[in-house]
Amino acid sequence: MLKKYLVRRIFVSFLAIIIPCVLLVSFFFAYTNRLLRDQVEADANQSLRVLEENLMLTLDSVSYQQELLSSNPRLTLALQKLLRQESISYTESTLLNVMNALLSSNANTKNYIASIYIYLDSCEQMLSTNNGMKRADEMDDNSWLDIYKETDAAQDRWLSKREYIASPIVPSSQVISIFLRLTNSRGVIVINITPSRFSEILNHVDAKEESLLYILNAQSEVLFSNNAGSDAQDSLIGSGLLRASDDTDNQWIQFNGEKYIYQTLPLESYNLTLISMTRYSLVYQMPNSFFSFFIMLISAFSLLILLQAYITTHRNFKQIYSILDVFENGSQAMPPSRLLQNEYDVILQNIVNMYARGNELKMSLAQRETQQAKAEMTALQMQINPHFLFNTLQTLDMEALAELGRDNVISSVIGELSDLLLYVLGSPQQSVTLADELLYLRTYINIQNYRYNNRFTVRYDIDENALSVQVLRLMLQPIVENSLYHGVGPLQRKGVILIKIHIRDNRLYFRVIDNGIGMKPQQLAALRVRLGEENGDGIGLININRRLIIRYGQASELRIASISGRGTVVSFSVPLPE
Asked: Tell me, what DSSP letter sits at residue 516?
């Protein structure tokens, strides 16, 4: 049994502690996962915005030459004359010198600018920060010219990755060429930038390398990527995920067995697309750490629950065994125990001790009451029903018939008295129906009419539904007898006794009313006191009152009301049998 209750206590403790914790943590995981997912999306979008700002800052800072030439027609005209080797004015020469100084300054101060070219479609000569003025087809680096001529004239700005040849003796390298079309003449400014500059921008935006960052041109060519993105670049190109887009995109994709938040941001002014891919596993970094902590916490809680359940169950069973010892040994109370750990244990011990003492007193009292009730019932029966009297009356009845030869008053009285004694000889504890009790009562009243020479009348008001109810034997006779002897008997006129019996509220109510001499208030008070005494003597009202209380409880005690010179009412009620 100890093992059974130990398992039950452990199970209940787990239900009460572990399940709420699991539900709380599950809700926390779901809620945190949603927050972190939103945060990852927001961070990825913010990274693209920061990348956009830094990229635009770099591109705009090196492309002001386009604005310079587009906003100054005289400078463009002077440049055309210079490239055609036509004579120019002093003012035009000054403007060209200023522009050349700006170009050289821009190229020299920004170490990521490899060179700057200015080319007009109508001129064979071009201007370069490295070579000065030179024919375009004689340049060592001329692949930019093919890109320019092949690009749609509708594009005014674009970027392209290509091989850059600074001179025949210097190995080629990759550059990103920014093409800026001139607006007031047909031509282009080409700014050649080393890719390291854009890689620095990308790595600076994602210093923790948590995201894959890419910059694509209109042809979906990857111009730059950060360090984290360069490793997966070839696979992404093969899967078709890296593609230029004109719209902002935000979706979750699957790549290489991992989930990514895939975001795009178009840079329309340069026909570029910025792409960010952030691993979904980042969402679970903090929850996974917390989950590990939660598992350790649950394990610790489980050990504590097991220990607490064992200690509590073991202690409770010791108390239970002590309580069982009290019940088995009867009146012996629980001795003070070392098991008393708190106020509840003290209360429990006191309750058990009180129960033991109360049970002892209750058993003793019940034993005395049973003995007293049996003695009273036996005494009542012995007072009015000796067997020899019944046998003697039977003999007298036969002698009266033999002597007179016919039925007569003497034989009638003797016969009714014999029937009365036969009813009284029954067991006093055995119940009878109300019909049998009334039959016996009528026999008794007939005998009394012979004695009183019909000086009284008995009337009945009986509920027919009550006739089959089981009631206490010899319950009404003592009350009617009391009305005859002390109420109606002393009258100088004819007396009346009314017996009313009816059912109400699941109880059977009795009232015996007479118009006798009644009682004075002092006599009534004295009688009520005698009825309430446990050791009162007498075989009339006191005896029947005691029997009613013993059989049906205190609610069935006699109630007496009386007015001197007018009569007396004795009433009581008993519960209906279930």
From this structure: S
pLDDT tens, position by position, 344-396: 566 666 676 676 677 777 776 776 666 566 645 554 554 444 444 544 455 55
Helices (H), 118-257: 143-150, 195-205, 227-239
Task: Reduce the secondary structure of 131-142 to three states and give it as a string.
Answer: CEEEEHHHCCCC
Contact in structure between 103 and 132 (CB atoms under 8 Å): no
370: region left, alpha or beta (phi > 0 left; psi from -120 to 50 alpha)? alpha
Q: Structure tokens of 400? A: 């009266």
Q: How do beta strands 567-575 and 507-514 pair?
A: antiparallel
Q: How far apart are CA 271 and CA 337, in angstroms?
A: 89
Buried-state track 544-572, b at ≥16 Cβ within 10 A, e below 16: bbbbbbbbbeeebebebebeeeebbbbeb
Q: Which tokens sit at 27?
A: 């809700």
Q: Distance between CA atoms of 229 and 241, rounded to whole angstroms?
A: 13
Give the DSSP H or E segment for 274. strand 272-279
Instruction: Give per-residue pLDDT as tens, 220-234.
Output: 888 878 777 777 777
Among 217, 216, 236, CA closest to 228: 236
Q: Per DSSP, what are the bridge partners of residue 181?
A: 188
pTM of the model: 0.45
Residue 91: phi, psi to the nearest 5? -65, -45
**CB under 8 Å to 310, separation ≥6 — which residues?**
6
